[in-house]
Amino acid sequence: MNVIITESWKRILKDEFSKPYFLELLNFVEKEYEENSCYPPVNQIFSAFDHCSFEDLKVVIIGQDPYHGKGQANGLCFSVNDGIAHPPSLVNIFKELESDLVKPIPKSGNLERWADQGVLLLNATLTVRESSPGSHQKRGWEEFTDKVIKLISDKKENVVFLLWGGYAKKKGRNIDKLKHFVLESGHPSPLSANRGYWFGNKHFSKTNEILSKINIGIIEW
């Protein structure tokens, strides 16, 4: 299985692609895709990177697993393809967006429009077997995405990291908070949101306030 990823990230991550754990991971993923229905489609596994170059990166949002239902996952965390019903977490993300920025809830749950503006929508695990959440965890993806986060932290400055929920907060443990901005809240899933840990975090307006202060173009959420 070949890694199809945009050139800007290939330069940054080239050493990672030759490590034994990553080669084992690729063999596992290739076998899984041959023998099972898996998501996202092979050509979208690295879509988060393809839509947000390393040079243009302004914001990082960390998810956990791709959606495991047919036609949902498109390689960007929390995002679904055009025409697909919004999953519960995305519903709550859009509700907070509506409340925070007084904007109508988007009809499409496809977040490529965010990614194309410099938002890296990074799942910790980039693939999953259909109807089997967590099925591709602990196979090497987490090590790879930890390295991605560490490289962003080391090689860039003034990136806004949005850490939603306990898993994302742990995933962000290596972010240098002296160089970057870290906003934390509960997860947008109904379990967390309905307990009051998500709504009202105002992360969308806070992110744009930060970007504006450091003279970087804001995100049109």
From TrEMBL:
Example of a GO biological process term: base-excision repair, AP site formation via deaminated base removal
Family as reported in the entry's similarity comment: Belongs to the uracil-DNA glycosylase (UDG) superfamily. UNG family.
Enzyme class: hydrolase
Domain Uracil-DNA glycosylase-like: 50-211
CDD domains linked to this entry: UDG-F1-like
Gene Ontology terms, MF aspect: uracil DNA N-glycosylase activity
EC number per UniProt: 3.2.2.27
Subcellular location: Cytoplasm
HAMAP family referenced in this protein's UniProt entry, alphabetically: UDG
Descriptive protein name: Uracil-DNA glycosylase
Keyword terms: Cytoplasm, DNA damage, DNA repair, Hydrolase
Record: active site: 65
Function: Excises uracil residues from the DNA which can arise as a result of misincorporation of dUMP residues by DNA polymerase or due to deamination of cytosine.
Record field: catalytic activity: Hydrolyzes single-stranded DNA or mismatched double-stranded DNA and polynucleotides, releasing free uracil
Entry GO CC: cytoplasm
Keyword DNA repair set for record: yes
Cross-referenced SUPFAM superfamilies: Uracil-DNA glycosylase-like
